[in-house]
Design a protein that fits this description.
90 residues; mainly alpha; 4 helices; membrane; transmembrane
């Protein structure tokens, strides 16, 4: 058991030394930092959401008076809620 612990500590020391030697050159250090940033998500640019993306509704609130289909839908919707309210009250 002592030999396994001693062997593990030697392996760990070897890996650490190898990592330090590998990171000592600038291109390898930049690769390592890029990989670390990708894994952790540090330094990601936050994309701003435009008004068009936040509200994808093209027309709302003021329907075109010449758009018959839209006007019928609005009138039917309003009529449905009024009928439901009247039915529940009466």
């Amino acid at each position: 058991m002592k030999q396994a612990v001693r062997l593990n500590s030697w392996i760990l020391a070897g890996v650490g030394t190898s990592a330090l030697i590998w990171i000592s050159s600038k291109p390898n250090r930049e690769k390592a930092m890029t990989m670390l940033r990708r894994w952790t998500g540090i330094g990601k640019a936050k994309r701003e959401i435009t008004l068009e993306e936040a509200f994808p509704i093209e027309k709302a609130g003021h329907p075109d008076p010449h758009d018959i289909g839209d006007n019928n839908m609005v009138s039917e919707g309003a009529l449905y809620s009024v009928k439901y309210y009247n039915k529940e009250i009466q």
